[in-house]
Write a structure and sequence with these properties.
16 helices; single chain; about 425 residues; elongated; two-stranded antiparallel ribbon; Glutaredoxin; 2 domains; 4-stranded mixed β-sheet; alpha+beta; disordered N terminus; about 70% helix; 6 strands
Length: about 425
């Protein structure tokens, strides 16, 4: 099996995993639910409406249930029932009244607004009870309103994991899949394996290959964990959105540029001046005189150096992914599972290439045209994620919205491929 064929097999396997993740975890969303009761002609209600609208922009997982009480006896009765449940009494109707988690606010002032925002931020990171569930019970809400209960599982070493946020799993699977086909990391791996083949030692290929992949994956994983921790430290979701959007736009536009003008101008690739040095270190690994410990040690040091060299080429997707998870309030055990899924899918293509070479002792280099196409797909996805993150962050908290974002990236890539082929054919360069 050639390396080119292994790419197609990797795509098929990874797409199957993505489909399994997308449909196994259900379509229920992990929402922070806020109930807002108001009436026409209420000045404080009118002030709270734009506040809640802006709050929802900053916290995409926030769901505001809007209830006007003068035009609906059902809404009025619900307000009275909730007020009684929250210890406010049910004889007088006071608006605006806001219910969130275990808290209730009557009226609206700047101080109340700050309190509501603090509670929303808390509920984004720590699941708060739906006020309707508090009133009627989870089973009653499910039967009467179709609200789905949270889906959780107990995972060894991770604890209880919330699986109700399908968009987070879908985003993780697709972003990791595209990130795994990064031309920089694939070039390094195929070049290394190609040189090891000349030793005609399957043992050396396995030792060097597994050590190399383990070290680079560990370093990359630590980099991702560092990014996630940094975003949690920043805390301000608006700043995270702006930072991630800028990085996504930058990486996206540069990678799309590389599809048309490969390595011309600014380009996120391994610098040409470093490639001869990397090649020299790879040649040193093929020396027959090296003992097994020396071979592992040399591979370890070389893998660390290569990871640093290719980091500017690979850093974009981890930044976007960790930014998405932070704005969606993902943390704890759920993040642990998502991180494990990301690393497995990210490594899948490299493991398949390594396995193919180990068995067949045959390899082929990554061609420039393949690199162009991978750059284009990655750039298009980066660009659509950046646009979504900046102007419509709510799309990434919805299953259908996530599919729209990823579908737009794929469609844009196909259009640009057809455009380039048309231009080349017109000028007789194809």
């Amino acid at each position: 099996m050639t390396t080119r064929r292994s790419y197609f097999l990797t795509v098929a396997i990874t797409l199957a995993i993505i489909a399994f993740l997308s449909f196994s975890f259900g379509a229920a969303e992990n929402k922070t639910v806020l109930y807002f009761f108001w009436m026409e002609g209420c000045s404080h209600c009118a002030k709270q409406k734009p506040f809640l609208k802006d709050l929802k922009k900053d916290y995409p997982s926030l769901e505001v249930v809007d209830k006007e009480v003068t035009s609906s006896n059902e809404n009025l009765d619900l307000l009275k029932e909730m007020a009684k449940e929250y210890g406010q009494g049910s004889n007088r109707v006071l608006v605006p009244t806001t219910f969130l988690g275990e808290d209730v606010w009557v009226g609206f002032t700047e101080k109340i607004g700050d309190q509501i925002e603090e509670k929303v931020e808390y509920c984004t990171e720590n699941q708060c009870i739906n006020p309707l569930v508090k009133l009627k019970g989870e089973e009653a809400v499910s039967e009467t309103s179709g609200t789905k209960s949270e889906e959780t599982i107990d995972v060894p070493f991770f604890g209880t994991v919330n699986l109700s946020s399908t968009p987070a799993f879908l985003s993780t699977a697709i972003i990791a899949f595209v990130d795994g086909f990064n031309p920089c990391s694939l070039w390094v791996l195929t070049f290394l394996l190609g040189m090891l083949i000349y030793t005609k030692s399957r043992k050396k290929i396995i030792i060097v290959g597994l050590t190399f992949l383990a070290v680079t994956a560990t370093a990359y994983g630590l980099f991702i964990l560092g990014l996630f921790s940094a975003f949690q430290y920043i805390g301000q979701l608006l700043w995270i959105r702006l930072l991630v959007a800028v990085i996504a736009f930058t990486f996206g536009l540069v990678n799309i540029k590389d599809y048309f003008w490969f390595k011309e101008g600014v380009s996120f690739t391994i610098p040409e001046g470093l490639k001869p040095k990397i090649a020299d270190r790879f040649r040193n690994l093929t020396q027959k005189s090296r003992s097994l410990p020396a071979l592992v040690g040399a591979t370890f040091l070389m893998a660390l150096g290569v990871t640093l060299a290719e980091l500017p080429c690979t850093a974009g997707f981890p930044v976007v992914w960790t930014g998405i998870l932070n704005t969606q309030g993902v943390s704890g055990a759920t993040f642990g599972i998502l991180f494990a899924i990301y690393m497995i899918i990210y490594l899948l293509d490299e493991l398949l290439v390594f396995g193919t070479v180990s068995i067949t002792l045959q390899s082929s280099k990554l061609q420039e045209e393949h690199g162009r196409l991978l750059k284009l797909i990655g750039g298009a996805l980066m660009l659509t994620l950046g646009v979504s993150f900046l102007f419509a962050p709510e799309l990434m908290t919805d299953f259908k919205g996530s599919l729209i974002v990823f579908g737009a990236a794929l469609l844009g890539s196909l259009i640009l491929v057809m455009f380039r082929k048309k231009v080349l054919s017109l000028f007789g360069n194809e």
